[in-house]
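QA checklist item 7 of 12: single-chain prediction sanity check.
[x] sequence parsed
[x] length recorded as 52
[x] structure emitted
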Amino acid sequence: MPPSVPQPPPTPYSENRRGLETRQRVLEVTSDLIRAHGYADVTLDQISSSAA
C-alpha cells in the first residue's frame, strides 16, 4: 500500500472565493448606484436587488 501524500491546507482564498466574489460584486454595484443617484439616494434595498 503506497504511503498517503499529505494535502496542503486549503488557502483562505479557496475557502472564501464565493464570498469574495460576492463582496466584489456588491462593491461594484454600490459604486455604480452612487455615481448614478448620489450617496444620499442609494438604499440597501437597491444595492441588494441590483447585486442579485
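[x] summary fact logged: The chain has two helices and no strands.
[ ] second reviewer sign-off
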